[in-house]
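User: I'm new to structure prediction. If I give you an amino acid sequence, what do you actually give back? Let's try with this one:
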Amino acid sequence: MSRCLTERSIDHVVLERGEVANTWKTERWNSLTLLTPNWQSRLPGYGYEGDDPDGYRAMPETIAFIERYAHVISAPVQTHTEVTSVRPGNGGYAVATNQGDWHCRTVVLASGACNIPHIPAVAEAVPATINMITPVQYRNPGELEEGGVLVVGAAATGVQIADEIHRSGRPVTLAAGEHIRAPRVYRGRDIEWWMDAAGVLDERYDEVDDINRARSVPSLQLTGSPERRMLDLNALTAIGVKLIGRLAGINDGKAQFSGSLKNLCAMSDLKMNRLLNTIDEWASDNGLDNAVDPPHRFEPTEVESSPPLGMDLADGKIRTILWATGFRPDYSYLDLPILDRKGRVRHDGGVVEAPGMYLMGIQFLRRRKSALIDGAGDDARDLSAHLASYLDQQSAALRP
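Assistant: Good question. You get back a string of structure tokens that encode the predicted 3D arrangement of the chain. For your 400 residues, that looks like this:
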């Protein structure tokens, strides 16, 4: 957004509570890699410049990429400036920070969608003998106690951490709810290449039937590794991870799990195959069938005929619970009536229900790829154009 505003000669400042790339530096586990290939990190006026476009950037590389971008575009970043309040003021907004106050005509909320780990209320009933952590706190298996680990949540974060912890020698049980299975590679190409080429990632928010539903779906079960391996529930069970259903409750130290695991896995397989059908149709329509591998389908997710519905958390076998149950944004600094009953900002494709206010960086903001690095540029171009038009209208209204 800063780059797009600079291109339009719009004076602005970027307020950052920590340092550039702060979340990547302080709230990610050591082995995490981007889920998208290097070539897909395309930002306005900037992109990948290395010799491994099909690789996946590790955390130090990701941090360096973002830091360099800020330097190249001369982004006017004020670091270590925590915003404590945004409220209406003098025809615009008054922004209070720990480094002083600002007044502006427009505000872009780019504080992210993954600020606060979501921990379900059932966590209050976990026995005190069990250590509980979130992905924000997790760094590597060596920091965990010896003994079993229950990972709750089977989206990208849950399956990656479950895989790493189990390979460290600690037995892992994975409680899986709704999830989206996807192959890393299909017909010889990265799944992200296919979704990019076929236009899946460019699908707009006003083209889907239920945008609220689309914005709440879990992330694809993907991982970025040199082997480009597929990390799904079948891959986890193959190394010994125990699969159980969604955690439904805890009573007297005994956990209860939903019996819907088989149905959820079948639904996940169905959604994956629908995506592969879309890719196959696009490949045929564009004459690629002879240039790539032939179509194929993956084995269905294997689930026990009768997965366990209970677990005694007080018997000492489980020493750690990791809540990979998603995140929610932190809008505690907003002193404006723009949040819905679930605490989300009310907006139309990033145009907030407050004059001159915009939103960036959330799932399916304007396009299916909005939450990816690769999606930020298109959203910023659209919203900066709207912002510029708003400023022009305001200026015209003030002229005598």
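You can read the tokens as a compact description of the fold. Here is one thing that stands out. The first helix runs from residue 2 to 7.
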